[in-house]
Fold this protein.
Amino acid sequence: MDRSKRERLESKGWKVGTVSDFLELTPEETMLVEIKLALSRNLKERRQELMTQSELATKLSSSQPRIAKAENGDASVSIDLLLRAILATGATPQDIGKIIASVG
Amino acid sequence: MDRSKRERLESKGWKVGTVSDFLELTPEETMLVEIKLALSRNLKERRQELMTQSELATKLSSSQPRIAKAENGDASVSIDLLLRAILATGATPQDIGKIIASVG
DNA sequence: AAATTTCATATCAAATATGATATAAATAAG
DNA sequence: CTTATTTATATCATATTTGATATGAAATTT
């Protein structure tokens, strides 16, 4: 992994090996991170077609800042919130299944 | 929903309408619950083929009681933990995608 | 049927995720 | 350029999720 990518991930709170790239992340941990990032990206795409972050936040009884973090792949956002957000954009379990299956 | 099913869900911590069945759960909330239950069931199946709850707990730096709850669809278990557990059984993102897509 | 292994339930302190708020930065509209 | 709208960042008290531990219940073995 190059320096700029590492710094991008670290700035979002992800624990990226400071010494030897991803060597501290097991394959399972890496897959989980990638799943979360795929969900983030997809949430952003879907939401942008439909409404503002504030509108989605209201639907979810959440807050605009939290939606921003969800869409930016912040490590503090749980998969639970990501899925609730994506479902609130009208996505089906099939849609979500595709997003996750596309990782790897 | 019949009485016995409601009582089964409520005993696991799920908020099920006490008066009129699922009327308090939006379709999105229902889908999320079903996704979690599908993941639970699948985790149990996969894990049983391979190891004990204690062994899986060690792999995850978790605890046997928490794995039990994960496999029993307890509401206190996050999707994050469910996915980490399923990945620790060797599941791929494709496998997980299929499980979720099968809901609905 | 006693002993052992495996799984379920209860409690709890610590860690993590949460929504709220304030505000800055970016983008779009006028 | 100025203003309005939308999105990003920071802080924080609260709520939820967590692993640990103790222990009970079931199932399996001997």
